[in-house]
From TrEMBL:
Predominant localisation class: membrane
Spans annotated as Disordered: 353-410
Subcellular location: Cell membrane
Protein name listed in UniProt: Sphingosine 1-phosphate receptor 4
Gene that produces this protein: S1PR4
Compositional bias per record (Basic residues), positions renumbered to this chain: 388-397
Record has Disulfide bond as a keyword: yes
Length: 410
């Protein structure tokens, strides 16, 4: 930690921060707890204009309250989906659920990072150390990189499954490979997101600073955009190849498997499309930030709504999972029913009444059929034949909702 602090402290360039005597366009009431390095970068890029800095706690605005509620909703929503996906992984053990859990975890991290960013922004920004400021912004980059790498992982796995199916491969090896790739995704995301914290910043070079992120180097922003653009391009190429393969083999395979593959492909393409629509404006804004000089582009001073649109993607992904997969809808519904029963918000009779009515209707239909059979036999009076042994009734597997009912009743 001391190494990271030394990489982002003013002692690394004392000639630039020898004194805080610089003109500002904002109002500063007390500089006892102010980080002069962050203050100088904000003033150089024009982000300090018309801002008031004081030790008094400022009240949260209406927009800030909306963003705060939105981030909490994203956290709870993705936490619910993550628990549901983990339950499906324990039952079905399909690799696609591991990848969806990976995306859900990155969306959960996005909501948490945005919540921390809101709580530590405003007048609190200038009380942070440079290392803490870089950590605050780096968490969003880590979440964004993890989401993109997760989408690439799903695209690669779908391509290898549909183009080069290997049924002889053992499921254990497949799971080891998937978990290894997921771990690699997070390692790469952490490295890319925290490169500014490790030294790739503009602490000692004000002319190379970004306007949108005053302590970030413009070269790092361009590097991140280039990496993300290459990954998104690879995702589109893979899904284009998958779509052409499915379209060519539409007349060869069975209708049920073909329909299931197309439905899953449609869901994943929807996830990628929504990701591009939500993150695309922020990518363009960062690209403008790279080519624009300091204080020249006023659009860069109002980037909160672009960031909120990017975070909105983390709230839309669980909706896409629920609408695109019947198994996910069932898992989420069962989890909500279990939570409702264990919290005492619902009574087991509300679920048992439907089962009881359906059971009584089935019994009534079976009695009606048996009476009609006896009447037909009495009219026809055929010779008696040895009766066949009765078949054992089929055993029905209890769902998780039924298990929740048994737990709550017991």
């Amino acid at each position: 930690m001391s190494v990271i602090s030394s990489l982002t402290s003013s002692s690394s360039c004392p000639d630039l921060y020898h004194s805080p005597s610089y003109s500002t366009n904002g109002t500063i009431s007390d500089t006892s707890e102010i980080s002069h390095m962050i203050l100088r970068h904000y003033n150089h890029t024009g982000r300090l204009q018309n801002r008031t800095i004081s030790n008094t706690q400022s009240h949260i605005s209406v927009a800030g309250a909306v963003f705060l509620f939105f981030s909490i909703f994203i956290i709870l929503e993705n936490l619910l989906v993550l628990v549901a996906v983990i339950s499906r992984i324990l039952h079905s053990r399909r690799w696609v659920y591991v990848c969806i859990a990976n995306i859900t975890l990155s969306d959960l991290l996005t909501g948490a990072s945005y919540l921390v960013n809101i709580c530590m922004s405003g007048s609190q920004t200038f009380r942070l150390t440079p290392a803490l400021w870089l950590f605050r912004e780096g968490m969003l980059f880590v979440a964004m990189a993890a989401s993109i790498f997760s989408l690439l992982l799903i695209a690669v796995e779908r391509y290898t499954t549909m183009m080069k199916p290997l049924p002889q491969k053992s499921p254990r090896k497949t799971y080891y490979r998937i978990y290894s790739l997921v771990a690699l995704c997070w390692v790469l995301a952490l490295v890319i997101g925290f490169l500014p914290l490790l030294g790739w910043n503009c602490v000692c070079s004000l002319d190379e600073c970004s306007t949108l992120l005053p302590l970030y180097s413009k070269t790092y922003i361009f590097f991140s955009l280039f990496i993300f653009f290459i990954i998104l391009l690879a995702i589109f190429v893979l899904y284009g190849a998958i779509y052409c393969h499915v379209h060519r083999s539409a007349q060869l395979g069975p209708h049920r498997s073909r329909k299931r593959s197309l439905a899953l492909l449609k869901t994943v393409i929807t996830i990628v499309g929504v990701f591009v629509l939500c993150w695309g404006p922020l990518f363009l804004l960062l690209l403008v930030d790279f080519f624009c000089d300091s204080r020249q582009c006023t659009l860069l001073f109002s980037a909160d709504y672009f960031i909120s649109l990017a975070v909105l993607n983390s709230g839309l992904n669980p909706v896409i999972y629920a609408l695109g997969s019947s198994e996910m809808r069932k898992a989420i519904a069962e989890l909500l029913c279990c939570c409702c029963l264990k919290a005492g918000l619902c009574h087991p009779d509300t679920f048992m009444s439907k089962d009881t009515s359906s059971t009584s209707e089935s019994r009534r239909d079976s009695l009606r059929n048996s009476f009609s059979k006896v009447r037909n036999l009495s009219v026809a009076s055929p010779p008696s034949t040895p009766s066949k042994p009765r078949r054992a009734p089929k055993k029905c597997r209890l769902s998780s909702t039924t298990s929740c009912l048994s737990v709550s009743s017991g």
